[in-house]
Amino acid sequence: MLWLVALLGLSIGVVGLAVYQVLATNRDRRTFQPPGALIEIEGKRLHYRVMGEGHPIIVVDSGQGGTHLDWQLVQPEVAKFTRIVTYDRAGYGWSDSGTEPRTAKQIVKELRQLLKEAGIAPPYILVGMSLSGLFTRFFAYQYPEEVAGMVLVDVTHERINERMPIAMVKLNERFDWLAIHVLPMMARIGLFRLLVLFDRLPLASDLFKKLPIAIKSAAQSIYAQTQFWQTLGQESAAFSVSIQQVEQARSKKLFPEIPLMVLSSGKPDFGGTQELLQIMQELHADLANESPQGVQIIAQKSGHAIQLDDPELVIDIIRQVVEKARCSSTA
Question: Which residues form the AB hydrolase-1 domain (predicted)?
């Protein structure tokens, strides 16, 4: 009888938390209005933000779990010398969830549609960070005539699992399993909302400290949403397919001869090790070799989120690529 009472109490508690999660999410959506514009793509709304004037246009994509908010130490400064677009991939930030698998091919398709519908014409300088480095490179392989330059910010490389120690590969596989099967359920009953409320969300708590104070609350509300964790799991589930798509595209198509700057973090971050840091720097050197104009730079003061740890460096690198692209267009 006691077990039955305990099970009933637990069930009521879970239902109560799930109801609270829905109500709190709706409250957050009323409180934190989209800073940019919403545009409908394939039956869902995607959120993007444009600042500045000039060409070529900078188009920025964020890492896994990232939003356009991650670039708000960079975007206003870049807007002083050219036009810059940041956006939230489907399922993140103020964008609706996607119905298709979150592969590189699908994400690039949605981004190009967004740019077209918003009247933002190429050529673009693509900026990719972490996981989205796969997407920006896939974009360049598939549509080289639309890309005038590229900045890669501590990005994922398709050969990362080949180079990492087996223990680290297993650790990543366990995280992916949790991201796909467990974390969305935890989010649905509001557990991440409680962790955010008490500033106890692993890794994200450190990230929040790096964001401008004015947008910290909005970022926390995003991390508390169920769709955020569902999307994180969907991107993890699609990771191997995205890797295959990039490998196939790289084997069949030449990377365009464009200004290319590859930024690598200079110190371990988010639980990383010195060994992993060295591996990533070597893989980034490989990416810099894709273009005759490729250059790798080590961000000595920064961990993984270089755009937050050392935004001045990222701004300067983007400026250099813009200037080189402008010279090439007038030559």
Answer: 62-316
